[in-house]
Input
Amino acid sequence: MPAAVRPPPAPPPWAQSLVTVGVTGTNGKTSTTAMIAALLAELAQPVARVTTVGCFLDGEQLDVPEHYAGFLETMRRGLAAGGKFAAVEFTSEALALGFAQAWPCRVATFTNLSLDHSDAHPSAEHYLASKAQLFMALRPGGCAVLNARDAAAALLEEVLPRGVEVVHYGVPSRGEPWAAAEISARSLQVSLAGTRADLEPSARFPDLPPVLTIRAVGEIFLENALAALASALVCGVPTAAAIATLARAEPPPGRFQLVHERPYVVIDYAHTPDALTRTLATARALCQGRVSVVFGAGGERDLVKRPLLGASASAADRVWLTSDNPRQENPSAIIEQVASGLSGHPSVKHEADRARAIECALRECEATDLLLIAGKGHEREQQVGNRRAPFSDEAIVRAMCGSDNGTVR
Output
């Protein structure tokens, strides 16, 4: 959700006419919000959806102003078209400005917490406290959907108002559970065709099937799917319909998106240390050859995480460090800071020109290798200085490989 105005305005009188599910966390917000919107469409259409990618009514992207005005226009259009539900991604910046008070949510969903946005928050405590605003603003009869394997969620549960229901979910790789989960995966199988999970029996949701499948690739997306499933079920979506919708839903663009085969080339939005670690783990599990990664770090953002991104990338066999929206900073200086986390890695190359870095990495790949191009995902621009120029990782790969050379989507 784009940053709200300050001080936050009072909710419009018609805001309660839409049942809103709000999503916050470090990684997976956009994917989870999209899944929730698809699930809520089983109850009523259109579903208003607002994320950092844009504003939508079902699958239609709206041409509305950015920030609060565009948000309100999206909500109005959804309501006028007969909609009853909204799914909204809440950034920590918007929540710090009080947006949870400006728009009431019936359900608040938490994905996970890791290092990000250190430029916008003076401390990790402030970052978490900002996200906590979404949960503190819930009203009696509302519901908090919390990650039972993320320790930060335990702190969120402590600040919930009285009369708020709690539903927990979780996947094994996030860590040991701090609470029993009503929706939980006990084992997963990941392939380039998607992700399959065996679900634990649930007393809270007794009609859950034993297996859940999604087309998105990776455990992180299965975790997002469980968060979306829990959010939808508490809103009244029938379980069978929810499971079927998740099974057929299109994977989110730029999220472990396979754009070429032999060699396998994947683009992903992973731009935090946690996300990069998990995405590379998925790549390693699916690759019979070597894993290479091309990535950078954004300029004028999160200096503290740069060496940590480098440390995460050390799981790859070959690393290409490049630019990722350097803005006013010197791209080479950013690369050096990321490289400090890769000390001792046997294969690290620097190429500030992102297109050339992708091309060079591709030329090094053999048929069984997997190349992960991380950080930008769905983005279609690159910001250098004050200039925004068209740039797409996917377009670079397709131009080099050709549209008929194993492209899958």
